[in-house]
Amino acid sequence: MFNWAKQQIAYVAGTQEPVYGPSAVKSVAEEAEETPFTELQRENLAWLAMQSTCVETQIFYAYSQAGHVAFVEVIYSNVALHHSGLRTTCQFVCKLFYPKVGKPKSHLWTSTPLSNVELNDDNTSFFAGECEVELSEDSSFYTIKSSSDERAIVDLKVSRVGPGFRAGTSGSTYFGTDLKNPWGFMRHAFWPRCVSEGSITTKEKEIDFKDGHASFIHALQGMKPHHAAAKWNFLNFHGDKYSAIMMEFTTPASYGSTVVNVGCITTDDGIVVAGCNGTATHTDSKDDPVTGWQEPTEARYTWSGTDKDGKTVEGVIEGSLGDKIDCVDIMEEVPGFVKTIIAGAVGTRPYLYQFRPELTLKLKIGDEEVVEKGKMYAEATFIS
Ligand SMILES: *[C@@H]1O[C@H](CO)[C@@H](O)[C@H](O)[C@H]1NC(C)=O
Ligand SMILES: *[C@@H]1O[C@H](CO)[C@@H](O)[C@H](O)[C@H]1NC(C)=O
């Protein structure tokens, strides 16, 4: 059978894809060899809201002064159903981790379907009845408001400090046997270093996010997510002077288990290093009888490249991940529509481990060495 036909069957039936090998993926790292990263323009933050199977999200990570870690997220998704065309669904998700880790009820999670979705004229702002995620006119901050679930009323402002970026020029990794006409892609845009203000109000109290650190990611999976990635790693670090972010995915074997790593280290004054030359390694792990996966217990994340003055930059965060703060059975927790996309795929048992490690960023810029403590949030996701 021709590859495109097999791909179409996999696409519609939700089955695993055939093995195309690494030649059917063009990593954004290829662009990054020449142009490690590109600063974002306003139009790069527009919702694509593709009219084909996709999952698109805007996610904000915020760290309160009191020690909470929260993420709030809008998910837009389309599923191509073979009987009845396209089904569009939107969801607002809020996850709040309380400062004291390890306690039984150490987090709050809400997930609410949204309806009457509208975008503004240039598609950078999202409105749906009880939820709004709006980019300011000068493109320097977002306001995120949601009263879609009374257990977590969100009223946050996330302001960019320094530029946003995407890896290479397009920020995209393309999938397909004819890469001039790819059948899928993954794209990420980042605001690595931001300041938060505002609050998340739970039934117990109003949690203040004033003067907190924050990050923002706009992610687009222009294909079935479990076809694009079998594994993910994510790390977000904020110190007084430096912030670091890393997003790494490994494609399924059908695309040669190709690793795509996008990362950045930044200060208030701008990006120190960004691009695709990072690594994420689980340096130790243990059997998790519940999930069947190897739960990481120690990890090492590295960034490397050159800064704007041509100095060599090497960054590393490594050590114990500490006790996990949660392990999410993605099939239980994800909104129904993502389940629809993933369901039926053979060998797919997605679990997401979440951590709040207490580690330091070690940085070498030319001859200068820096060690910085900070707040950190990490994820390890296993899909297939
Ligand atoms: C916004 O999205 C709509 C629908 O996808 C599209 O037709 C329009 O061209 C977009 N506008 C801009 C300014 O990109
Ligand atoms: C990334 O690493 C490769 C191999 O070590 C090196 O050749 C390349 O110059 C690096 N790219 C950047 C942008 O630092």
UniProtKB/TrEMBL annotation:
InterPro entries: Ceramide-binding_SVF1, Svf1-like_C, Svf1-like_N. Keywords: Cytoplasm. Pfam families: Svf1, Svf1_C. It is found in: Cytoplasm. The keyword Cytoplasm applies. Residues 55-221 form the Svf1-like N-terminal domain. Residues 223-384 form the Svf1-like C-terminal domain. Belongs to the SVF1 family. This is Cell survival pathways protein. It comes from Neonectria magnoliae. The gene is SVF1_1.
